[in-house]
Amino acid sequence: MNQAKVKFLPITETDGSSILTHPFVSLQASRAIQAGSFNMITRFWMIIKDDATRTFEVYAQEANDNAFTNRTVAMQRSGMNVSCITPPVTHKNGTKAMVKVPGYTLENGLYERLVNRHREIIMKAAQDEY
Questions:
Q1: pLDDT of res. 18
Q2: Which helix or strand (DSSP H or E) is residue 116 part of?
Q3: Which of the two residues, 38 and 65, has the higher pLDDT score?
Q4: Fewer CB near the last or first residue (10 Å), C or N of the chain?
Q5: What distances in angstroms separate CA 81 from CA 21, 46, 111, 114, one per listed residue?
Q6: Residue 38: what are its φ and ψ, rounded to 5°?
Q7: pTM of the model
C-alpha cells in the first residue's frame, strides 16, 4: 500500500506572531494555511424540495448538515414527498439567488411550511395512539 510521506512543521515565530501548525498537517497544507489560501471547512447549501408541488427553497448555508438531512428523512418516513440536496458552496453558486434546481420553482417559506406540516402529522399520530 502506497502511503504519502508527510513532513511536519514545528511551531515557529515569524515577525513576532506565533504560527501554530497542527502536527498532522502536511507541509503543503501548512503553507497554504499560513498564506491564507486554504479553506478547511466546506460549507453547503441546504436545499429542501417538495416533490409533490415541484418547488424548492434554499434554506441556509452551513458546514454541518446533519440536523437538516435528519429532519428531511423524518419527513419522508412520515409520508411526506420531500427531498433535500446539499451541494457545496462554490463560486458558481455563491449566493442564494444563484442556486437553481432544474425542474423546480422557488418558493420562499417552503421549509417552514413543511416543518409545520410534519409537526401536524406527528401530533395527529400521537393523538391517535392515545
A1: 40
A2: helix 110-129
A3: 65
A4: N
A5: 47, 17, 13, 10
A6: -125, 115
A7: 0.64
